[in-house]
Design brief:
With 785 residues, the protein is an alpha+beta fold. Among the domains are: 1-35 and 167-312, no CATH class; 523-572, no CATH class; 576-779. The chain has 24 helices and twelve strands. The chain has helices spanning 6-34, 42-48, 58-75, 93-110, 112-128, 175-181, 193-208, 222-232, 272-276, 282-285, 338-364, 373-381, 407-424, 443-479, 487-498, 524-537, 543-558, 561-567, 576-589, 602-622, 629-650, 656-691, 693-729, 732-779, and strands at 81-85, 130-134, 144-145, 151-152, 166-173, 244-253, 260-267, 300-303, 317-321, 368-369, 395-396, 511-515. The strands form four sheets. A five-stranded antiparallel β-sheet has the order 4-5-6-7-8. A three-stranded antiparallel β-sheet has the order 3-2-9. A hairpin with a 6-residue loop joins strand 6 and strand 7. Helix 1 (6-34) runs parallel beside helix 11, helix 17 crosses helix 18 (561-567) and helix 21 (629-650) packs parallel to helix 23. The radius of gyration is 41 Å and the shape is elongated. The termini are far apart.
Length: 785
Amino acid sequence: MTFNSAEAIEQVVWSMRLADYPRGLNRARIDDLADGSQPYSDEEARRNGISVNVNDLSMTRLAHDARLQLYQAFNKPGNFFTARTDGGVAHKRQERGYVVTKAINKLMKESDAYYECTRSRFAQMVVHGIGPSVWQREDGWRPRPVGVEDVMIPSNVDLTFENLPFFAVWHGYTAEELTRLTRGPNRDPGWQMDTVNAAIKWAEEQTAKLYGGTRWSEYWSPEKAQVRKKEDSGVYASDLVQTIDCWDFYYWDDANKTEGWRRRTIFDAYGGAGSWGGVTGYGARQQLPAKNLLNEEGTFLYNSGDRVWGDRLQNIVHFQFADLSAKAPFTYHSVRSLGFMLYAVCHLQNRLRCKFAEAVFENLLMYLRVRSLDDAERVLKIELASRGIIDESVQFLSPTERWQPNPQLAELGMNEYKQIIADNSASYTQNQNFSRDRVEKTKFQVMAEVNAMTTLVSAALQQAYRYAASEYREIFRRFLCPKSTDPDVQRFRAKVLKAGVPEKLLVVDAWDIEPERVVGGGNKTMEMAIAQQLMEWRPSFSPEAQQRILRSATLSITDDAAFTDVLVPDSPTLSNAKHDAMLAFGSMMAGGVVRFTPDLNRLEIIETLLAELGLGVQRVVQMGGMATEPQVLGFQSVLEHISELVGQIAEDPMQKERAKKYADESGQLANQIKAFAQRIGEAKKAAAQQNGDGDGKMAETQAKIAATVAMTQAKVQANRESRAERAASREVEFEQQVEQRQREHAMELEQMAERHALDLAAQTAKAEVDVEAKRRQAAEPKKVE
């Protein structure tokens, strides 16, 4: 499919506008009510003598609450999304993911333009169910929000957009904006500069003439007319700057065996208010104007030719949906929004409230009965204050003589509409008033009701998160573009490259993008309940998970991502507990006694020591499984410290399973260390048999040392298991006494190990002296007598 003729594109866009005009009228009615306009038109109020004509703003409040849910869901977390990579060296993937994620999200969070884009998108999602945005440049990362009425999609297009052949996006360029887009060294070659210059000149001339009044495009976009009325109160002043109204037309084509979306830009149909209105106007005849604003036919403002402007639809436009339609398969023009669901009932409620207010005012009036017009004139002259004289011809009407409305029926109607509104908006708004009675509820009942509400809200947010992921992926792709002229993209690339991320890793295929989701589905009550429960279970999780739980709980309390980042930094830096454990491992291997401060995380310390000990044992195994005596004693010292730390965390009933896991891991390492000690004993016994009786004593001593090491390990293992069992079954006071005895026992073991080490060293030295003496004696020549 090719569109090389501007006239053909104008006809296609014109037909889509004609089909969209009835939809635009419906959207304008929804916008009108949501913006707080009166429920009765001026003509209806005059014709029916309506004195109260006000909007109760119920739909406005509901739209605001629904937008608040979306704001909380997307803007509250510190990042819009998290980038993770599976490329490069494994031990640097987490750090690189952190660097890239922080760099991109910092630029996105600081961008006012992107913030306003998300606000516009959320507002349209709530009111119309569709939140479109487009990328005006091929290398800029920020999308531009557009109105639902500004995007022309053919009928019967699925939400997958797999059967979308073409679409058009309206845009009104100012002369200054079009000048910026078409000037400079990086100008897109698709701009037709002769036509661009003529259009800029035309806009400047029209502005200089104070060409006021509304834009003719607003006649076919009723939503724009509503916005203009709201801004200018119905008066179109002469300070309206003339814009160059265009349609960016995109179509899928596989010309020259290159598939992709091509771009063409044409002028919007021209003619002004006089040409569109009236019986013979373009609007009534539904006929495409023959001339554009340059008084020409079939003119391109932009033409990409055979060059592909986007490989995928997501490279050009992004749609965020909040669809409440029940009819499947779901299509673009069958999307039903919260505004659609609420329009009729909110409109009726507004009219009912106006009638109710009129009835209240009528009930407060004082009615008098008179016989003639002369009596009426006398009544009007009566001043009723604290005192007054009333003519006998004037009679007051009693309440029984006046018409009485049915208050129960009016209240029933208002409650019915209120309930319908609450039911229809439950997926997007928070409704805490579940109870229909005044009975005090239990905590379980409250949590069940809050959970039911959160389920509805979360269902709507799941859809929003899913569509947001495609936008984040496109933004991420644009940030990785190496030839981008966007200053933010250039700063990002410079920052991550300086941080050590390889340039070959800055490709889209190497990364996974996952939107960050707020806890509780945007509901504050549920978020606090989840945070509280996670904090209670926090000790049972791994150290990394504990940090994430603490960060999530802090964010739920503060609602401030920046302050949360200060209190609980989300970074892959080494914790103090791990750092101290790594340093202490060397002291333990030397036989020293190490004590850790109470504020350090015992779980991280144990896991670090087990990891270091495992590496040490593995190195010995790789070298043939023959350790030295100092290594075995050092390993034994580390095991004793781990045993003591495991005993400390075993005192917490919630950590019992984790303590058992650590005990099993240390037990496996202890078996390997015991094997090392046995090999040392066997080697020395064999050496003693070769060297004689003197060495035999040394071998016997060394065998005793090995046996002592094995016995110590057995005692430590038994002590560990006994401590864990007692911690789960005995009282706190008894546990403290047991802990004291165990510490004394550990000190005795340490002293025994030190004595054995000294005895071993002394015996080894003595044995060496004896061997040396024997060797010298054997070497001396015998005296001849």
